[in-house]
Amino acid sequence: MISKERKFWIYETMNKIRYFELKALKLFEENKLRGSVHLYAGEEAVAAGVCSQLRDEDYITSTHRGHGHCIAKGAELDKAMAELMGKVTGYCKGRSGSMHIADFTKGNLGANAIVGGGIPIATGAALAAKLQKTDKVAVSFFGDGASNEGTFHESLNLASVWKLPIIFVCENNGFGISVPVSQSTSVENISDRAVGYGMPGVTVDGNDVFAVYEAFEEALKRAKAGDGPTLIECKTYRTLGHWTGDPQTYRDKKVVEMWRDTKDPIQLFKKRLVEAGDFTEEELDKVEEDAKIEADAAAEFAINSPNPDPSDVMDDVFYEC
Amino acid sequence: MSKKTYATAIRDVIAEEMRRDENVFVMGEDIEILGGIFGCTRDLYKEFGVDRIRNTPISEAAMIGAGVGSACAGMRPIVELMYMDFTLVAADQIINQAAKTRYIFGGKAKIPLVIRGQQGIGRGNAATHSQSLETIFMHFPGIKVACPSNAADAAGLLRTAIRDDNPVMFFEHKALYASKFEVPDDPDFCVPFGKADIKRAGKDVTIVGSLLYVSRALEAAAELEKIGIDAEVIDPRTLVPFDTQTIIESVKKTGKLVVVHEAHKVAGWGAEVVSQVVEGAFKYLDAAPIHLGAKACPLPFNIELENAVVPSVEQIVEAAKKVCNKK
Description:
Chain B: GO terms for molecular function: oxidoreductase activity. Chain B: It comes from Acetobacterium bakii. Chain B: Pfam families: Transket_pyr (PF02779), Transketolase_C (PF02780). Chain B: Keywords: Oxidoreductase, Pyruvate, Thiamine pyrophosphate. The complex is a heterodimer. Chain A is an alpha/beta fold. Helix content of chain A is 43%, strand content 10%. Chain A has 11 helices and 7 strands. In chain A, a hairpin with a 2-residue loop joins strand 4 and strand 5. In chain A, helix 1 (4-29) runs antiparallel to helix 10 (265-275). The radius of gyration of chain B is 19 Å and the shape is globular. In chain B, strand 13, helix 10 (269-281) and strand 14 form a beta-alpha-beta unit. Chain B is of the alpha/beta class. A 7-stranded mixed beta sheet of chain B has the order 3-2-4-5-7-6-12, with helices on both faces. Chains A and B meet through helix 5 and helix 6 of A and helix 3, helix 4 and helix 5 of B.
């Protein structure tokens, strides 16, 4: 059972992510934003469903498609958008751009532009949680593509052998850029790979908040009980391009439209919330409206923020002891 | 002072730092009961337990990545690699993650991580287990690189590395583990990073070398003395940060420079030293500097072939004679 308050948080967070992403896309199309920008719109149920159950002191690592995880783990839209625009007011002072947003105060150990790069890092954070005898957990978000990287296999094995408090959350969005999962991956369900590492694996509908929430709830219990890791595969779909300039010649537009029009996780969740009588349509529309306003304000903040000073470019290579 | 082997000095510092700070722990292959194949963690599991002297699967990327992650989460991990050659298996976690994390996160991360292990010639380990890789890691901003040449430096540099809040690559040399040296007993004995050590003072020629090539440079200096050449031997001790100044001051005095290392000569760190000395002290040079390093072929197994690939003491002597214009 998800509390009403938490349902509201999830819905609000999903909308924040959605409008942040759409705003980022618009800014990219207007040439106000450069670099590699990978949008998460359409996959919000995973980040929001998982992070609604985490505290600030719990850790996550994220991916090149990381804005959603960062926002769900507490990132403020204005600082995140400023980072996308390379501004000094951004989370990383304009050093990282879209692909490496981090906020250690919220347990976000960073988005990671290397596919599979964050998985061992989250595993290490879980090791620290265990060695320090805390009840913190770590979550590693990664995509279907990362499940073919060595770091995925090494980390699952390590976490299982050491019974670490970590949950591996695979977002299977159907494609590694242009290559469909069926061409790249040896198993139909990536969660099947959990068997090889002696941990439970479960596949859920990644566009269904309730399914993600429940699977994660159980994995979290297991992690906190000291029973070790779980692999959760959330099957979803990338309705936008791999990056903002993707021509998307590799897939059928009709399939994309079908996902966008009938399986949008926000619309599906909204319908359930209204049907259950948790909130009225008007109340939820207001949440959506507020998210739009917040995303617009974030863009304004970012546009009006100063660029970093090139004379600081050598700062922070090392921690000065 | 106590006379100790290089391996024992390393082991003792790990133990002392683990006693001092409960966040320090070690993970690596075969480090628990076996104590590491060179004994650098021998018996430590008995005192510290298997949580803190932690055997790992043979998964270098996961070990080092877990080092980065646990460091980000407040621990001070030491990751032992059985051979530093295996850094290449885990290169992404070192070069893209450990080295860059602090900078790209706008200075928010602290990564007190030590990656240590041995490298080099001397045991017939052949091409993939005998390389000298310190130069590679000098190239990427964000990691410090230490290369101790004796037990005292090993102890002092390792303690500094463990107490440093940055990732440190700590290159030990397999042929030095059994060598003995007087090591200070002070449990706070640290050798500062970025401070080269003049291992032998001299006035005629500056010879820069590290790791195994400090003792070889000293052997060469003893030979040179017989023919009236007084060599100054400098060990940079850390390649990052690098103490250019001590070398430049020496060259101002001697006017001649030979740099020697076991790493391949092509684009080896000696080339960087020559470059910096030429930029910083050109007018003091009486002769073109000579840079010696391993030939551009993989390290072969056969001991005679192995020795043929790396610089010999004789070659160091010849190079010094050449820059001194002595037949």
